[in-house]
Amino acid sequence: GWGDHGNGFGLMQVDKRYHRLVGQWNSETHLLQGTGILVGMIEGIQKKFPRWTKEQQLKGGISAYNAGLQNVQTYDKMDIGTTGNDYANDVVARAKFYKRNEY
């Protein structure tokens, strides 16, 4: 499916404005593309903020996945400008929910 005003594609909501879309919306190819983008964002945050904890870097990478590396300026305000201004917090909360409920 499409989200973000027709720009986000598939389960991973890969943004067609910044990435060439691959695979079907729910395919392994698509999931690997989105995962690769996320890993790249986490690595970018690790370089940008080497003193952050691994947990903070993961959260920063999630925020950057949504709004770009340039948007992440500080840990406390990383979600400003993301979807709902709480993208990373929302993703982490959902992941914890799924883990807790053994999905």
From TrEMBL:
EC class (word): hydrolase
Keywords noted in UniProt: Antimicrobial, Bacteriolytic enzyme, Glycosidase, Hydrolase
GO molecular function: lysozyme activity
DNA-binding listed as a keyword: no
InterPro entries: Glyco_hydro_23, Lysozyme-like_dom_sf
Reaction equations catalysed: Hydrolysis of (1->4)-beta-linkages between N-acetylmuramic acid and N-acetyl-D-glucosamine residues in a peptidoglycan and between N-acetyl-D-glucosamine residues in chitodextrins
Family: Belongs to the glycosyl hydrolase 23 family.
The protein's name in its UniProt record: Lysozyme g
